[in-house]
Specification:
- The protein is an alpha/beta fold.
- It is 44% helix and 12% strand.
- It folds into two domains: 237 residues, Rossmann fold; 68 residues, no CATH class.
- The protein is built from twelve helices and eight strands.
- Strands 3-2-1-4-5-6-7-8 form an eight-stranded mixed beta sheet, sandwiched between helices.
- It is globular, with a radius of gyration of 20 Å.
- The C terminus is likely disordered.
- Bound molecules: NADP nicotinamide-adenine-dinucleotide phosphate (NAP).
- NADP nicotinamide-adenine-dinucleotide phosphate binds next to helix 1, strand 2, helix 5 and helix 8.
Length: 321
């Protein structure tokens, strides 16, 4: 039996968006896929069993019209441009800002309309950002900053939801680079070339890979287990107990109330040593950011303000996408 629930998935014609559309169809939702290439989208829609609307996801008018017409219960913003893959000095401003004009603009357009309408009570919006939003992406122009901006926009929208007392859930998923899609394979090839290795060798660091199926499962887990997945953002992974790893508060360090925030510990001082320990990639537990900041300031003698910067530095030292 067809469920009465409707979902819109942007970027549904291939890659991660297609996996998400398939997962939602499998849970008997009516799914409307959006992508620009009409022929490719329609072929995919026939295989998936969803409807197709060809269009540019960054078009504000299209976003508003589709939300008003279909009143979706679920909106997944997965459409994203393939970043121009070259070093910073070989970019132009146009190439560098490419993802801002697609990924970020689309997130802005859909969330803006979702709030203005507003979407129906209980509706759920999932924004697909990237692990690059945490780790950076030095060969992908403005990709990482565009994906980070998606995350900020989602945070701002969550704040308005609470101010407007709307019953609207907005969350962000951050998948790691993976060889499962065209975009991911191009990225891995570029980073492998830069590292002087083969794409196959380079891809090993992202094993097991995030796949379209893993993304589909991740989105379904957010929808099905709201009590478990209450936070604003989750890393999407293919290992461990499930596809979602908590990633609380990276865009709002000062409001960190997470019981198990997955951000790395700040450097502390080893027992009996005056030298701060090198940063560790372990998890912080139960400590609000302001308290951690004070604690580290006390143990290192560093002034408090630069500690915010240290925290992001630590995150970027974990490795890059
Ligand atoms: N694969 C990875 O390694 C990886 C890692 C982290 C995050 N992500 C993010 O996950 C999302 C999906 O990535 P993917 O790897 O699945 O990419 P992909 O295989 O290149 O698929 C991109 C999808 O987005 C659509 N699209 C692109 N620009 C669009 C636009 N302006 N309007 C409407 N649709 C548009 C494409 O269809 P048309 O070209 O026909 O429009 C296609 O359906 C992206 O936001 C990406 O940044 C991917």
């Amino acid at each position: 039996m067809q469920s009465t629930q409707t979902a819109i998935v942007t970027g549904a014609s291939r890659g991660l968006g297609r996996g998400i559309a398939e997962a939602l169809v499998a849970r008997k939702m009516r799914v409307i896929g959006v992508a620009r290439d009409a022929a490719r989208l329609e072929a995919a829609a026939r295989e998936i069993g969803c409807e197709a609307v060809a269009g540019d996801a960054s078009d504000d008018a299209l976003a508003g019209a589709l939300l008003a017409e279909h009143e979706p219960d679920v909106l997944v913003l997965c459409a994203g441009a393939s970043p121009p893959l070259r070093a910073i000095h070989l970019q132009t401003w146009e190439s560098f800002s490419h993802n801002w004009h697609v990924d970020t603009k689309a997130t802005f357009a859909w969330l803006r309309n979702a709030l203005l309408l507003p979407m129906k009570p209980g509706a759920h919006v999932v924004v697909i950002s990237s692990g690059a939003a945490v780790r950076g992406s030095p060969v992908s122009g403005g990709y990482a900053s565009a994906k980070r901006a998606q995350w900020f926009i989602a945070d701002y929208a969550r704040e308005e939801v609470s101010r407007m007392k709307l019953d609207l859930h907005i969350q962000v998923l951050l998948p790691m680079l993976n060889p499962s899609t065209e975009l991911g394979r191009a990225g891995i090839a570029a980073y492998a070339k830069r590292a002087g290795t083969t794409p196959e060798e380079y891809a090993k660091r992202f094993m097991p890979p995030v796949t379209p199926e893993v993304m589909g499962r991740g989105v379904c887990d957010l929808l099905d287990q709201p009590e478990t997945y209450k936070d604003a953002a989750y890393m999407t992974r293919a290992k461990g107990s499930g596809p979602l790893a908590r990633l609380a508060c990276a865009s709002r360090p000062s409001s960190c109330r997470a019981r198990a925030c997955s951000l790395p510990r700040l450097p502390g001082r080893a027992a009996g040593s005056s030298t701060p320990r090198p940063p560790r990639a372990s998890r912080c537990e139960s400590v609000p950011w302001a308290n951690r900041s004070r604690a580290v300031a006390a143990s290192t003698g560093w002034p408090r303000e630069p500690l915010r910067r240290v925290r992001f530095l630590v995150a970027s030292q974990e490795g890059r996408e």
